[in-house]
Every structure is written in structure tokens, then in C-alpha cells.
């Protein structure tokens, strides 16, 4: 098959729901339906003996066999293993994500035939380790990941497409500034973007990888459980399946409260049953602090972009949780503008990813793209050094956050002895001056140094962020033409051998368990 016929596929791999989109023959993004006939697939995995079940059925199993269900695995990305144990085994979170992607691939292939190239989305606030884990998940699901794209950027691209900015006639010379507020199921992302013609430029980004609709659900679970305890003196949260059932009930109540002023949640446990009524006001009071956190981060991001509310053309709402009326009210009050819900909250991110896939495929064919994306890094990059006084590990920031990408930072080290063979550099991402409070990306050992270097020879280490936020390390020795690409030895990352093993297992080419 030539590249010309290759479908442009974008996958929004969400914490709670995932969506697949592809460009139709006219280059228009459309949402694919899954095998169940739904446009969104719950990002939930059930381990049923030898079987791995993904999606709606796995979500249902939360009420009966919660111990065998992996939900919100995206939240654990960057960790070595997912926090729950299944059948005595702990899986890396990116392997669980790979199973989700594998279902999306199989369901889509049923309709359009086999395909391998995709773009997968990540929260803008994902650090480098989580970005790599996402690409690895795609690989293990049998994909060739063309690129990863930041979710708010993808939403902005979908918005731009919808507004006609992506074709020559529609693209305006007047730059448009938008703030993308994305409150999903498990993550919160806010990004300030400038659309200059068909160029999408991120100015600043911030967020929280552990704040989303799921946390609002948990507050409802607590409200209902507390009322249940007052009545029956037992706590339904103590049993995983009872808690899982109550969570599903409360998520439904939350959706109802986006449309009505009150709703009731049924709860039964150990032979007791209750129906607890919850008003919208009670719900909003119980979650005020969560909303306030998004409000604070939103203001900070605007400030980091060097803008005021008056400088913004639009506040774009993305993510299922922005359907909560309190989000609209808060943003209206904060910005003095009516937030814009014109893009499909659940589908815009996938659509933007499909448009980006189309751009990548065109580029592979040597064609010119119809739009361009410029990102910033969401976390500062630092090199670990030791404080001479306290002997504490310190984060020496080399590339501050919100720097326009791609960017290269340079640090010159000196060899300590003559004919030194290697140099060890530890890399972190984060804002804290203490290296231990940052995300450990890994150690980078520079080998292959030129022979016979005198002691105190300068060695320049170049840290290069690619446009998608992935990091490459390169070493040059001033005065020589020596240039070495250096492999980063990562803290919590799967080796190539493991990735290939999991790829065969997840894609079912090899029926036996792999680890
Ligand atoms: P993610 O990409 O993080 O998986 P989504 O953008 O798909 O998240 O949004 C899913 C979240 O949106 C879930 O927490 C879900 O409960 C919430 N949600 C969806 N519809 C509504 C609604 N009508 N009212 C309130 N919350 C909603
Ligand atoms: Mg999302």
C-alpha cells in the first residue's frame, strides 16, 4: 500500500474515555465507532483469567469484580507498575494502555482494514517520561506512532479547522489568542495558544495529572457513603466491588446534576439499601476546592503567557467535565467572557490528532502541510548537581518551562582525570530546587569519549527537546569533531526486549504471558 492510501488516524487515549478519529476522503475528521457501536470507549481493562476485556464490559465489571479491573491507568504512567495487582501480577501502566489501544486498533481495522500509523494524544502537562511511556504503549499495541500531540493543541487544531483557519481563504492574518481549558476524567490541562494564520503556537501551559472528573465522582461517593453509614453503620467503600458499583452510580448522578438540580443515588451493601438524594448545590459545595484548583492554575497560566483576560479572543472548553455548569460559571466570572463550547467536548482532541496524522503522512510523502504547530515544554529540564555545602542533590535548571520547542540546552562539564572514558549525567524534570522532588528521567552515561583527553578537558552535553517534548542527549567535545548521541538509561522504562515481548503478547501473536 502506498502512503497515499494510508488512513490518517488520531487516537485520544483518555484517562477515562478514548476516542478514535480518521480523516475522510475530503480530509474532514470523523469519529469512528467501536465494536459496541459507541463513539467513545471506556479506558478500562478487565483481567478475566486468561482473557483481557477492554471497554464497556470492563467498566460494568467494576460493580462485581472490581479487584480484576484496571481503571485510570493513564494516571499511573511514568510509574514502574500499575498500583493494583491482578492474579498475582503487576503490569506496567503502559502495558495496560497498550491493551486499550489494541482494542481501538482492532475495532477500527474491522471497518477500514489493517493500518499501523497513528498519532496519539498526551496531556500538555505530561512530562518526558510519561510521553515516552505513551509512545511505548502505542508500539506494544502494534502501532507505528507517527507522533504524539498535546491534547489542548489538538483541540485548538480541531477548532481552527472548524473555523476554516486551515485553508488559505480562512486563515486570518490577525492572530487569535485562545485559552484551552481541558477538564477530562483524570487530568486537567490548560494552555494558552496563539493562532497565527495556520500556525498554532502554544504560549504557556500548566495542569495537573491527578485532577479530573474522577475526583468529582469520589466526592459524591463520599457524600453517599457517609449518609449510608449514618443510616446503617456500615461503609460500602470498604468492599472494592460495592465501592465500584457506587462509583458508577455516582458518575451517573454527576451527569444528571449537569442538567438538573437534584438527583438520587442508590446504594446497597450487606443487605442494607438506601437512596440518597443529592442537590446540585451540595455537589458544588463538596467539590469547590477542586474547581478552585483549576481556577488558580488557569490564572497562573495566563500570567505565564504574559497576557490578561482582555487579550484573549476565546476560552475554549474541552473534556467531558466541562459540561458541569459550575465550570462555565467559574470561567465566565474569571474571564468576563462566555466560554466557547463549540467544539465537541469528547471528540475535538481525537479530531485534532487525526488532522495532525494527516499532516505527518503528507510530510512523509514530501508534501507541504496545511498547518504548523509550535509547542512549549511543560516542565523545566535540569541536571543534577551536588550542593557543596549541604551535600544535597540539587536541580540545576537548564531549560526553564514554557520555553518554545524545539530547543537545545548546553552544559559544559570538565573531565576530572586524564584519558577519562565516560561521564555520568543525571537528568530531571521539575521546578523544585531539590532534585529528589523532581521527576527522574534517568542517567545518561556518555561513553565513546575521544581517547587521550587531558584532565579538565571541556565536554559539552546538549539536551535537545524535540517539538513533541521528547528529549535527546548529544555530546560534543569542543575542539574535536566528536559528536556522540547518548542513550538515556531510564528509571522506570521498559527495555526494547520487553517492549517486543509485550507487543507480541498484547497483539496476541504469542499466547503465553510475557514478563
Ligand atoms: P478523559 O479524556 O480524561 O478520559 P473526557 O474528556 O472523556 O476525559 O471526559 C470524561 C469525564 O467527563 C468523566 O469524568 C465523565 O464523568 C465526565 N462527564 C461526561 N459527561 C458529563 C456531564 N454531562 N456532566 C459532568 N461530567 C461529565
Ligand atoms: Mg481527554
| Dominant shape | globular
**Oligomeric composition of the shown chains:** single chain
Helix content bin: 25-40%
Alpha-beta classification: alpha+beta
How much β-strand is present in the residues? Answer: 25-35%
Biggest sheet descriptor: 6 strands, mixed
Ligands, deduplicated:
adenosine-5'-diphosphate, magnesium ion
β-strand number: 25
Any idea of the CATH topology of the domain at 381-486? Substrate Binding Domain Of DNAk, Chain A, domain 1
CATH superfamily of the domain at 381-486: Substrate Binding Domain Of DNAk, Chain A, domain 1
Which CATH architecture of the domain at 381-486?
Answer: Sandwich
Give the radius of gyration: 24 Å
Give the number of helices.
Answer: 11
Residue-averaged pLDDT = 92
Low-confidence parts, pLDDT < 50 over ≥5 residues? Answer: none
Cα distance spanning the termini? 34 Å
CATH class of the domain at 381-486: Mainly Beta
Question: In brief, what are we looking at here?
Answer:
This protein has 515 residues and is of the alpha+beta class. The protein contains eleven helices and 25 strands. The strands form six sheets. Strands 1, 2, 3, 4, 8 and 9 form a six-stranded mixed β-sheet that branches. A five-stranded mixed β-sheet has the order 15-10-11-12-16. The protein has a five-stranded antiparallel β-sheet with strand order 18-17-20-21-25, with no helix packed on it.
